[in-house]
Design a protein that fits this description.
Layout lengths: L2 H10 L1 H13 L4 H16 L3 H17 L3
Helix pairs in contact: 1-2
Length: 69
C-alpha cells in the first residue's frame, strides 16, 4: 500500500489514530516507566551492573509473557 493511502486512512480515521496515541502514552506508566525510575537505586542496593540488571529485566519480561493466555 502506498504512503498516500496510509495518510488518507489516518486523516479519515483521525479519532481512532488520536485515541491510539493517547492510549499508548497513558500506558507508559506501567512496568517500564516504574522500573526506569528506580533502576539506579536497585542497581546500587544489589551491586548490579547494567548488563546484569538488563538480563534480570529481560527474564522477568519473558516470564510474564509466558503466563499470558
Amino acid at each position: 500500500m502506498p504512503l498516500g493511502a496510509y495518510s488518507e486512512f489516518a486523516l479519515k480515521n483521525w479519532r481512532f489514530v488520536g485515541f491510539g496515541f493517547v492510549m499508548t502514552g497513558a500506558s507508559s506508566f506501567g512496568q517500564t516507566f516504574f522500573v526506569g525510575i528506580f533502576e539506579l537505586s536497585v542497581q546500587q542496593a544489589f551491586g548490579l551492573d547494567h548488563t546484569t540488571w538488563g538480563s534480570i529485566y529481560m527474564i522477568g519480561t519473558l516470564a510474564s509473557a509466558l503466563i499470558l493466555p
